[in-house]
Amino acid sequence: MLEHAGRCIYISTASVKGGDYLPEHLQTVYVIPAGDGCIVATEHCAIESAEGIGRRFTYMMHTLSLIEK
């Protein structure tokens, strides 16, 4: 649930299939329903920058507001 845009689908990579180790790069995807389809927002970052860039991207997504055309 995003603060201003409402319900969305959130997909985040946390480990490589099998769960034995972390991937080199992380990806996060938000699929946000909109009036005429959906908005897809993706973030790609290296594992080392997930705490910095990843957190900022999450904060930014919570400020997203959908407006009508």
Polypeptide structure, described:
With 69 residues, the chain is α+β, with helices and mostly antiparallel strands. Helix content is 19%, strand content 35%. It has one helix and three strands. A three-stranded antiparallel beta sheet has the order 1-2-3, covered by helices on one side. β2 and β3 form a beta hairpin. The two termini are 23 Å apart.
Instruction: Give me the count of strands.
Output: 3
What is the mean predicted local confidence, pLDDT?
87
What is the general shape? elongated
Spatial separation of the terminal alpha carbons: 23 Å
Tally of helical runs: 1
Q: What structural class do the secondary elements suggest? A: alpha+beta
- Low-confidence sequence ranges: none
Radius of gyration: 14 Å
Strand content: 25-35%
- The largest beta-sheet arranges its strands as 1-2-3
Order of helices and strands: EEEH
Compact summary:
With 69 residues, this protein is an alpha+beta fold.
Topology readout:
Blueprint: E1 9-12, E2 25-34, E3 37-46, H1 50-62
Antiparallel strand pairs: 1-2, 2-3
